[in-house]
């Protein structure tokens, strides 16, 4: 009975070692913050991942690698672990580029205090144009806050603006 138990235990251990599968701990969506130059570089997520498996020689890679500049507002990162028996596991998680620093507006207050009232005059200036085809009256009427232009070409066509 002991021999059978040992053989069974040896078989289970051997089968386990030969089917050494790496299991990666999952990561939630990650936020990648832009720096002062509005550049978001993908960080190294490998230290945040735990590889569980029967083999110690696991190779763990990250795609895109750490230091890659994010060109798009959203992306994905793949982390893959592979052991010496070519058993592999991978996880894919989302990354979001974030700028959480709002722009700050400042204003020169001397512009606010430098009030200059508009210049307006109540007057009517008439200019008479004489000549073939050009005859008419041109007037510019200025009212407070408005400027009205009146033209009359003596054909009773008037233009007001």
UniProtKB/TrEMBL annotation:
Name this protein carries in UniProt: Uncharacterized protein
